[in-house]
Predict the 3D structure of the following.
Amino acid sequence: MPSLCVFGAQWGDEGKGKIIDHLAADVTHVVRYQGGSNAGHTVVVGAEKYVLHLVPSGVLHPGKVNVIANGVAVDPLLLLEEIDGLIARGVAVSSANLRLSARAHVILQHHRRLDALAERWRGEGRIGTTGRGIGPCYADKAARVGLRVCDLLDPARLESGLRVALAEKNALIQSVHGDTPLDLGEQLDLYGRLAERLSSFVGDTGAELRDAHRAGAAILFEAAQGVMLDVDHGTYPYVTSSNTGVDGIPAGVGFPPQWIGRAVGIAKAYCTRVGEGPFPSEEHGPRGAELREAGNEYGATTGRPRRCGWLDVVALRYALELNGATSWIMTNLDVLSGLGDVPVAVAYRREGRRFETFPAELSSLDAVEVEYEHRPGWTEDLTGIRRFEDLPRAARNYVEWVEASVRVPIETLSIGPRRDQVIHRS
């Protein structure tokens, strides 16, 4: 298998974890290139359920090299908790199968504190952040005042960097937000101990991956969030703080773009979104609640109930085209069983204009009206089916109609949470 990127083609929570775990069997390396611990990838192996936040999903396959690249915002405390939790469950994690970029920026406690405090101040204008410090960490990176993993490993650099950072951040925490400042000595002690434990995992992962590619390795790049949350191309400002699609790989890994092979999108057979922000095809009535319960739509990281709605062909076509998708994978098709007819958003309308392509020129999607096409539903349980031709005719028709509408082939269907609950199409 050549190297490939798997990206979410909606607002996140598309089922990337299971698909990446499924594809990981055929690659040598699995690489996280953006995002932070606000993302949760859920993988079910037999009777065991794993929720991975920073560690790439390939860790559940023996012999794979898992890389946390420089584009990831790394909370060392949460990373070590995740590593310890996996080891306690019998999953092998060592410097042989987990590599951490020395250039990755570090989420510190002042980032987490300021994230939560700033969100409180925004009131009705809140973004819906998880409060895990990802945005403030990326902001410091762009402002060139952040600390990287390699800085944690240098005691003098760590001390000088934290001293400067806390002089500014404590002033904000105390004077602006009226909260308790952080103690420099306590922070130095904490991050010095964490750095010692992380040191064996740290290296120049960009160079390691370039060497692996030249040696013929098959590399799988996994996105943390969906394309519609991309900081440049998503529904700004209700987005994450990094580039979530294929465009995030060259800078977020140190990997030449021309070496990336296939780009495979992941999208549900319907839509969900967590937190604030526009969601044109959201179902506000009882059918939205039905979707939530049928799909168990609660955040893997936060437990928050997800907003649920119908497949949005306008947004999906945009996400796939933007990333040059060679194919895509439809997940959660089984969730639509028994829910009656299936509405699909096919166009937006606003002020007399009709949009079949995603309207980037609009400053907000809040006022758009959605035009739906209703597709016939089905009642049969799909979770035991393994061949496309064995699906109910209405389910096959739905898949083929959506495929024609977005103009990108669907290579695989996911019809349940387990590894084996997939249908491959030629």
Summary: The chain has three domains: 4-100+202-263, 105-198, 267-424. The chain has a mean pLDDT of 93. Residues 267-424 form a domain with the Adenylosuccinate Synthetase; Chain A, domain 3 fold (CATH 3.90.170.10). The longest strand covers residues 342-350.
